Amino acid sequence: MNLNGWIQIALYCAVVLALVKPLGSYMTRVFTGERTLLSPVLGPVERGLYRVSGIDARQEQHWLAYTGAVILFHVLGFAVLYAILRLQAVLPLNPADQTAVAPDLAFNTSTSFITNTNWQSYGGETTLSYLSQMLGLTHQNFLSAATGIAVAVALIRGFARASSGTIGSFWVDVTRATLYVLLPICVPYTLFLVWQGMPQTLGAYVHATTLEGAHQTLALGPVASQVAIKMLGTNGGGFFNANAAHPFENPTALSNFVQMVSIFVIGAALTNVFGRMVGDERQGWAILGAMGILFLAGVLVTYWAEAHGSSVLNSFGLTGGNMEGKETRFGIAASALFAVITTAASCGAVNAMHDSFTALGGLIPLLNMQLGEIIIGGVGAGLYGMLIFVIVAIFVAGLMVGRTPEYLGKKIEAKEVKMAMLGILCLPLMMLGFTALATVVPAGLAGPANAGPHGFSEILYAYTSAAANNGSAFGGLTANTLFYNSTLAIGMLVGRFFVKIPVLAIAGSLAAKKTVPASAGTFPTHGGLFVGLLVGVILIIGGLTFFPSLALGPVVEHLAGAAGQTFATGG
Amino acid sequence: MLKQLRPALVLLTALTAITGLAYPLAMTGLAGAIFPAKAAGSLIERDGTVIGSSLIGQAFTGAGYFHGRPSATTAPDPADASKTVPAPYNAANSSGSNLGPTSAALSERVKTDVDALKAENPSAPVPVDLVTTSGSGLDPDISPEAAYFQVSRVAKARNIPEDKLRDLVTARIEGRTLGILGEPRVNVLALNLAVDDLARR
Questions:
Q1: d(Cα A442, Cα A437) in Å, to the nearest integer?
Q2: What is the pLDDT of residues B75-92, one digit of tens each?
Q3: pTM of this prediction?
Q4: Do A8 and B180 touch (CB under 8 A)?
């Protein structure tokens, strides 16, 4: 660890924090239907879209209709994406002559993109045509992100409204999130990325003759336009197999920094949107504060572990930290920081190979995802994930003092707590259940590339990443098989919808309630005590659920490595 | 649900056309007009042929060139398409080694590389980036220490004084962006092109 590394980390936090208020203010205007700076340009487009779709922008939906719209949108999106992947061989814009994507892989990839997971069973440059990347993946990058934002906004309305039968219109929310938030940022962002060296071309792969006379095929494509939304929408699915470690997908230290900022910026700003819409910005800052504490703790551990180096490298007297799987231009600090950010948010892009991280350096990304990606989190998903924990924390506080719990003037009753627990419990069921299955059936055991505890970590990481809709991987796992493609896809679907639907149910239930005025007995939810309680509840629930599995993987590996042990794959 | 079918279908189609076609195509046109060389992949040409991209590393093996970091990229086995063979710096199939911190295979690979480098230059500590594979397998850079480490070998093979080569390396070190971001580095392809120029003069 060095001073410069800490300065990079501090600068990162400062830039994200500085953007919270301006973007939060803008997004609040967008989702409350007020005029914005971009209304003169985008207003006509928006109204045109509503007209052709037969949408009345003023007509709001009951939570059940909202949920129905969300599901319908996903189902249709899945069908379109699956069709494009299966038909890419006969569709245009396929200069590298990619063949049709296999059915199980197309199922996995389509599921992965509609759920904002972007797990990479596919290989990017070796599997997908330019059309599949653009029309297939780029558009789902936008829409799955816009859906996440829409659901978060619907939940916020649940808290903000009183005695209301509706929580907004999904069609309006998803259109506005796409047109007013995502697209206007992506346009200049794409140009910035190209300026940094990222390709943006429809030209075919280039054949080069190297200085030593060897042949090198350079995979290219419309990379920058996809990377912009991949990061901003916390999607994370790479254009190339190596994702943001690839020099074409992350050319410079500056492009790396801006990509990291763009992963967090919308999620962080949504806490401010929350504060503004419930009428007390401090409520948003309290939630951001809890996120910040967990985030900085993760950065500290990962940076320390990676800078300290792995036992294998240290045994040869090598200094300079664990550089296996990391790029020279980023170094240890920016790689460790990126890993914590991408798993705190549900991004899943990687600028270094997590599989080659030290045992403890890899534990933090795993734990971040297991907690449900509530530290900033996926766009929208992070905020509603965190609000689920808030409900549980408030409930626990209520139990302690023997009073009906209230949050923002809403009584938290049995229905909300049940729904919150459903959302929390479906994740460990998928993560741990499928890991247990994969460690006993031959099809599962065929996956890991590494032996010993690290092989177990590879499996655990895969199901954790899928259910948490993250998409990053311990990439050594051979996941492009029928067994993994299907079980991971199930994990993604459950992880997405068994959180989203309970969240919308909570939104509907809260919106219908009356607001009770605060009294002397009301637990204040904008101060340090509440932040501490929230962090405590998250760590207790996460720790109790996942510590045994972490002990079997990273913790054992750390101890074995410290004792000088290595593991060889048999056969 | 049926009442929602029309908005769902039409909106999905319209937003798909905007975000999946109009946006990437417009960006391709705009990027090609403003940054044509970068949008096309920062290609480097010498004597009319493309020799690579300034952003993508190449496999250098000769003693007269500076070497990049080890690369874990692979290519399909020509004899059996279901298997892969090592193909360092395969820019059509980026990947890392994905070897974990307690992997015996990693330990053996690093040992072989460390021993070879120690034999080549016993006077300096082995830089860690010269014995570890990058995340992409296409890392175009090495650390300044890794470049200095190889000066004596390249100087001997090329018959260039070591001082001159060392100055060449020093001149090609790129610092941290704004003095803060990333790490100091040397682009191996650019350095080797400069070495070729120096040797030609």
A1: 10
A2: 998 888 888 899 999 999
A3: 0.95
A4: yes
